[in-house]
Amino acid sequence: MGANESANQYEDLCYTNKFDNMKISSLPTRYSPLNGIDQKSHPFSDLMDDDKSLFENHHKSSHKKKAKFNSDSDNDSSSGGTSPNNNMVKNHPTRKIAKMPYQGIWSMVSTNGFKPEPRTGHAYTYVPSENAIFIAYGKSDDGRLLKDAWLLHLSTMEWECVTFDMLSPRTHVSATLVGKKIFLFGGKDNSNKFFADLHFVDLAHRIVKEISPVQFENGCPSPRSSPTLFHSDNSVFVWSGYNGRTLTDYYEYKIDSNKWEKLADPGFEGRRISLYASSGYDQSTSQFSIGSQKSDLHQSFEKQFAFGCHSNSDIIEFDPQTKKLNKIKCTGHRPRGNLDYASMSVQNNFIFVTGGKHSSEFTYLYALDLATKNWFKFHVVPDDKTVTANEGNVTETGHFELPRMNGQTMVYSPQEMALYAVLGSRYFQECPVQKISLATALATLNHRNDMRAMLYL
């Protein structure tokens, strides 16, 4: 195994696909909006800077001797990660994909009915009671800020428009679910005006309501974009974010008493754009959406996590029992922590991370075992029906890499036992859905962990 192959990269899910029985060519779909457009003024330019040079290098490489593809250019390592390889060439789909003890199955899924406009910078969360992905706000391909909200029902693959009339149009808003209400906070507009108007979407009645807190204890959070939101049964917690500088303050909004309270600073650096994922606790039913039958898992798996946009790869853990934020030191083949616009989701035993802005064209799906705090590359293969190896890369060691995506929403559905990913930087014209089926792979990994646990009895 070469040095590049032994490193670890922080990488992303899919973007090329077959959609409604029509194959969408990966490079034209992703890069055609750049034709005739000033890249610096393009609304997604912050997500596309590295990809444009990749596209140019890809075509130049056909006239040059093939260079070795650096498939692990965005890994984290003890030295802080390897440097990007700017001499990347085309993928190697003709290599044979190695057989692994487990593997997720990557596919594309068509959706039904009216669809939301493609976007990036949107708020999102998973709604267990409806097995749906909620998205709101964001920025369109032509730079317009949006103020609509949608639900993608994963059981039927149908989009539902919740409302076209949220608050003022904005991007980089954050969301979290408490019971049947999705609370949203933060964001900014195209003039870099930042927002601090806490509001919620009532899923029971499909209405939007702005909140005017009546009490403040030591102030309330200032306007900011991309704050990290956590939740407990009766509170929403706001940490960090960006308002021209990275913030570190920490607040609790108490829903029942309708007041803000400033909490103690957690004592470590904030995150300008962090990833957030909940373990799936549904407060309305007092059950975990993962269907755990063990009562002693309640405290552990109600915890929520944040990751990314920092030089290290520590996971930030929120414990709703103590209201504390803690750093989790992890080992293994971990993704780099300093990539922007990556994607993260949590299944009861694992955290999944993929994607992010980087010059490398392909990506792994990474998983963190929450029991061992060990990162590893989660093996994924195409289904060879809706997607093939031609739309990814096969490394020299036979590992399949997915095409990189930035700004994509990814959630885990316990009902479907699969990761679903929507929207993001590569979808300017369509709104397809990526799916990675995990049922067989998770069964294998959980069995392995059970066998390991028996050794310590």
From TrEMBL:
Key words, A-Z: Kelch repeat, Repeat
Chain intervals for the UniProt region annotation (Disordered): 27-94
Family matches, as InterPro entries: Kelch-typ_b-propeller (IPR015915)
Keyword Signal: no
Lineage top rank: taxon: Eukaryota
Biased composition (Low complexity): 70-87
Compositional bias per record (Basic and acidic residues), positions renumbered to this chain: 50-59
PANTHER family from the UniProt entry: ACYL-COA-BINDING DOMAIN-CONTAINING PROTEIN 5, FIBRONECTIN TYPE-III DOMAIN-CONTAINING PROTEIN
Name of the molecule in the record: Kelch motif family protein
